[in-house]
Amino acid sequence: MGSWFRLGPATLVAAAFIGPGTVVTASLAGANYGYALLWALLFSVLATMILQEMAARLGIVTGMGLGENLRQLVSQPLLKFLLFALVVAAVVIGNSAYQGGNITGASLGAEAIWGDAQLIRTIRAYTGLNPWALLIGVMAILVLWRGSYQLIERCLIGLVLLMSLAFVSTMLLTRPDFSAMVQGLLWPTIPTGATLTVIALIGTTVVPYSLFLHAASSASKWQQAPDKAKALQQSNADIRTSIPLGGLISVAVVSTAATAYFGSGLAIENAADLAVSLEPLFGRLATYLMALGLLAAGLSSAVTAPLAAAYALRGILQLSNQHFRLTWFTIILIGVVVSSLGLRPVSVIWFAQVANGILLPVITLCLLAVMNTTRLGQYRNNWRQNSMGAVVFLISLLLSGRSLWLAFSS
Q: Which range is the signal sequence, renumbered to this chain (predicted)?
């Protein structure tokens, strides 16, 4: 059993892509289109597993993260500058912008569970800041400050398991139509007006910064492993367990929203609305479980987003440990300020979305190039892995083109 299922670095990837943004996107997908778009989540999970397997294998075999490997791959100065600028723009600036949403989502979950207590109102009145955002930011800092990979992994495994329990239990309480779920998973359809939602569902799951996170964390976990083949076997078991678990969480959120809202004529704007409005339909327990899942999702992404950005920047720019810590600390601080003051950095988020839209196919192509270099020896990509990677690259190119067109035409 242990050789097939385990939790490890891939859990960080699941924790990264199941954030408040994914919960909101999945909620809206279920509320507006029922179970019809579940197939997009199934594709996302498969595509993520293909790319993350390559990233983990790269980290284990080379002992370096994706950033370090890209620095060795690209030697032409202009191409190196453009690639590095794109990574910094998309991963570092983008994660700084999204960090505010991560902390805000966790704060909404906390408020739905514990309410707006007198102490919280008093602190907010005197400081003008959101105390929940400050507390969540401090928790993220404490987890990362220790600098121990084992501690970070254990904390995030706990949060992913908590999310799984909360969201899947909520789904079961709402009694979804399982036959419709199976049909939605296996029969791809795009209802009228659902194209943007399909792009969003895939885009919130297959994200470029997770490749930096997984390669670096795998290199850290198995840096002393004497048997590369055994380490890769453990990594593959981790991917088979963790990534589908993250997909199950997304499916649970879509199904909960579909059961509660699809065809009802009611509308929701965010996941916190879904948590609060479940109470009249399915009881207080459903509200608590949904809010707990949202809190765990926000907190897990509040840890993984700055960590991924720091890994990417350290690999690309050869940062010292002090600058590595300064990078993630700065991103958390930006997120706390954005969330506490209720700011909406629309232009920065728009810029991050554009940069991410360009980065995903570029990084996918670079990853495929790295995985075919001779220094990987027997662990290079075979024809099957290259074929699957090429399919993911082409689809990411189409999705990115569509996203960029929408960003510039809106």
A: none
